[in-house]
Specification:
Layout (H helix, E strand, L loop, with lengths): L2 H18 L7 E6 L2 E7 L6 E10 L2 H8 L5 H4 L3 E11 L2 E8 L7 E12 L6 E7 L10 E3 L2 E10 L4 E11 L6 H6 L3 H14 L2 H4 L12
Parallel strand pairs: 6-8
Antiparallel strand pairs: 1-2, 2-3, 3-10, 4-5, 5-6, 6-7, 7-9, 9-10
């Protein structure tokens, strides 16, 4: 075998070994305060950790959807959100959304475009809201690093006595020159502070009194 072929085989072997180190692992609890739990785990084929946060509160499904679809309010309660707007409303349950993230100095601010879709199981009444990356929907903006790998999911599970378990799951590669190890060190702060903000806003009258026609509430 030639030296070039040997070198190629060695590089391929090392690449496969490094790639295989990033396999899905079990969720690990990182923070549990104020009834907010935050977990992380190693994601498959990614150097960045996947995160999950969850809370259980007494409220209606409509109130939660009213808040989560009030995108202009995100700047007030979503962690490090600088701008939040709807680029296109496709229908009641699908839209294209744009958001910016304020990054700590000296890193550049980030922005992302996602397609958001809501679905509800007619039997269990569980609602899933998925956000999938749609990075090329609009041109890149000066001063921002466009996030090209972004997957998020809200799951709303009705329980007994009017309680709802709210789970948020996120895997994102912020792009740019920020090393994965540095991002992973701070990955818990975002979901925790966002849930703190969520709890403060969900009790507002405009959300508590919301009635969304296409949302089916669980039987009392």
């Amino acid at each position: 075998m030639s030296k070039n072929k040997l070198l190629f085989a060695f590089i391929l072997l090392i690449s496969i070994k490094c790639f295989s180190q990033h396999k899905v692992t079990d969720w690990e609890l990182k923070k549990n305060e104020n009834d907010i739990a935050v977990y992380t785990r190693h994601a498959e084929n990614s150097a960045f950790k996947e995160l999950k946060s969850d809370i259980t509160i007494k409220t209606s499904l409509s109130s939660i959807i009213a808040l989560l679809t009030d995108y202009e309010s995100y700047t007030k309660w979503v962690y490090k959100c600088g701008e939040s707007t709807t680029l296109k409303k496709i229908n009641d349950t699908t839209c294209i959304h744009y958001q910016t993230v304020v990054a700590p100095w000296p890193a550049s601010d980030r922005d992302f475009v996602v397609t958001i879709k809501e679905t509800q199981n007619p039997k269990t009444k569980i609602i899933n809201i998925t956000s999938t990356c749609n990075a090329t929907y609009i041109p890149n903006k000066d001063g921002f690093v466009r996030i090209k790998n972004f997957n998020a999911k809200w799951s709303l599970t009705p329980l007994k006595d009017g309680l709802v378990e709210i789970e948020y799951q996120l895997l994102v590669d912020p792009g740019g020159a920020i090393p994965a190890w540095l991002v992973n060190l701070a990955v818990v702060d975002g979901p925790f502070e966002t849930m703190v903000g969520f709890k403060k806003f969900i009790i507002k009258d405009k959300y508590q009194k919301a009635k969304i026609s296409y949302i089916k509430e669980p039987d009392i």
